[in-house]
Amino acid sequence: MKKKIVLTIVLLLVAVLIYYRDLVSYGWMQGKGQFEILWEAQPIGEFLESPDFPDSLKAKLRLIQEIRSFAVDSLGISPSDNYTTMYNQKGENLLWNVTAAEPFALVPYRWKFPFLGSFPYKGYFDLEKAKLERARLDSAGYDTHIGMVSGWSTLGWFKDPILSKMLERSEGDLAELIIHELTHGTLYVKDSVEFNENLASFVGRMGAIQFLKNRFGQNSAELTSYVNSEVDYEKIYRHYLNGARKLDSLYTTMDESMSVALKSEQKKDMIYDIMKNLDTLRFKERKPFQWKTENRLPNNTFFMSYLRYRGKMTSFENELEERFGGDLRAYVTYLKGVYPSL
User: Fold this and answer.
1) Could you give the CA distance from residue 45 to residue 112 in angstroms, rounded to a whole number?
2) The whole model's pTM is what?
């Protein structure tokens, strides 16, 4: 009887592995890539003590530790051992995300993962495998894109390391990135990537401003440069978000009887107008855009990335001011109670 039970369990496990072989293969590949990074990451103390490691980069490592402490003590971010080690990328990129969307609707293709839910992107530590996934979705008629990932959070499952390329960022951008990723480990809503990314972007931006004020001063060059850059980027974000709304309106008015060729032509014309009008934007620091007709036009995945990371920012800003009087720590503490992390 026991042998029959064991045999039945084994057969069930084999059947499950066969049925989910693609998912198992992907999980193994991602786990292997993540493990290699975690295994080779070194305590930051080793870099700080090394005479061969540049002093300018040592200063960035120390700054990250200040950002971590500030995030916990002043912003209410949950404490962790994240960013106490560093992985030396040696100039190489590590992770790429594949995204896809319907060709005539701002609707993302979603990948489903056990326990974590569904995501509008799929990460790869192997660029060639990412290209294969994109090709599969291309052949199915989706708009697709592969983007490089500069940082990610394992949501508390592992000790996230600093990636050496992070140290190339300015003080403000570095603070925003670290606080953004730490927010993911503090607050996570299953199957709500848009909420999670918008919230992390919001806390990252607002937290960076508070950190720079505290660390460098109200009139510091570091704070002024970051705020001016944010003003510039805000204009770009709004331009693309307005473009996304225009595209959405176009798609909803497309008649089902329209040919794919006609739909594609209308889509192309609208995206071209959106990109062409970038030259109307004026900035504090960066140079004006000059979109060239020979540049490849973006597709729906491009506009959806702005919806994913910036589409809900205004609602967070309003709630912070109206309900919490601008107190970011109180707001984060409230959200931790409503949306606990994994």
Assistant:
1) 39
2) 0.86
